[in-house]
Amino acid sequence: MKRFFFPLIAMALIYGAGCQSKSQPSSSADAKDSVTNSNEVAQTENQAAPIDTKNIKVADAKTILARPQVPILCYHQVRNWRSTDGAMGKDYTVEIQNFKDQMKMLSDSGYNTILPDQLYAYLNEGKPLPKKPIMLTFDDTVLDQYTVVNPTLKKYGYKAAYFIMTVSIGKKGKFVNYMSSEQIKQLSDEGNTIGSHTYDHKNFKKYTGKDWEEQLDKPTKKLEEITGKKMEYFAYPFGLWNKEGFPELKKRGFKMAFALADKRDENDPLMCVRRIIASGFWSPKTLHNNIVKSF
Questions:
Q1: Fewest CB atoms less than 10 Å from the CB: which of 9, 18, 82, 282?
Q2: Bias category Polar residues: which stretches (predicted)?
Q3: pLDDT at 250 over 70
Q4: Is 138 helix (H, G, I), strand (E, B) or coil?
Q5: What is the per-residue pLDDT across 100-134, written as a single tens digit (0 to 9) for each?
Q6: What is the dihedral of CA 20, 102, 183, 15, to 10 degrees?
């Protein structure tokens, strides 16, 4: 089922959300987090090594579509629900303890994170991936992705892709705060992938004229200045795409673009890689069931 996300103007209304219907108390869990346990061992031996994609030969669509899909999860906010959060806000917000429990579930289940470069090499040339690969992606630049998500992922040796909306970098608001340039660079320096999520979340299907410069070129330049790395991956606002826009992405050097749960384009599947939103209403068990069912 396709899920939609309000544009930036409406984000303040959405950003009052969280996780499953009832989260576990955090006091004892936080105490546990400060203690090293068996799950904290970084799973580097199971993680795929960094990939140089410069010499990867792009495969034909039939070959790409024939490869088993890698589960890819899409997250937005990770914070506790507020009394003002509506159903959509809660759907897009995973509560803190639930998120920690979800990551523990993935680790206990033997999942190992991969990054877009590794997925690109696998889809095109069949490069090997670690056992039970999964990709974690985080949209919209929200600060809790740095303060809550990053430390949690480090416990399990996990890496992620963060898709940045540049209009919000460093902004503070009544309902939500956003990452600074320094925090984005740190995530990049620590081995995570930084990708583009446009300037201000405008619907990709409606781009004309100057939109390509405003929504793609300027954000790319800014993110490359921040990270010192080339931007090669893109996530569509609302998960909405049209194939007419694929050439615009390609000529700007984007190797893959990430959508949501729609069917992939039969002629250009790299430009509409599927993800599912990890709902705030899902327990770790429900999340696992949806991973298995969706991919």
A1: 9
A2: 25-47
A3: yes
A4: strand
A5: 999 999 999 999 999 999 999 999 999 999 999 99
A6: -10
Q: What is the pLDDT of residues 273-289, one digit of tens each?
A: 999 999 999 999 999 99
> Does the pLDDT of residue 27 top 60, yes or no?
no
For residue 33, pLDDT over 80 is answered with no
Q: Which of 98, 90, 94 lies closest to 77, judged by CA?
A: 94
Q: Rounded to an integer, what distance in angstroms lies between the CA atom of residue 275 and that of residue 155? A: 24
Helices assigned H by DSSP within 109-194: 116-125, 144, 150-155, 181-189
Position 262 confidence tier, pLDDT thresholds 50, 70, 90? confident
Nearest to 295 by CA among 13, 69, 30, 27: 69
Structure-token pair, residue 176 = 């939500």
Q: What is the mean pLDDT of the chain?
A: 88
Count of residues making up the chain: 295
Residues 6+ apart with CB under 8 A from 184: 141, 162, 164, 169, 194, 223, 226, 227
**Assigned token pair, 288:** 């696992």
Instruction: Write out the DSSP string of 83-117.
Output: TT--HHHHHTEE-HHHHHHHHHHHHHTT-EE--HH
In three-state secondary structure terms, 263 is coil
Question: d(Cα 18, Cα 6) in Å, to the nearest integer?
Answer: 16
Going from N- to C-terminal start, the domains of the chain cover 91-174+182-294
CATH superfamily placement of domain 91-174+182-294: Glycoside hydrolase/deacetylase (3.20.20.370)
Cβ-count burial 272-290 (b if 16+ within 10 Å, e if not)? bbbbbbbbbbbbbeebbeb
pLDDT of 22 > 90? The answer is no
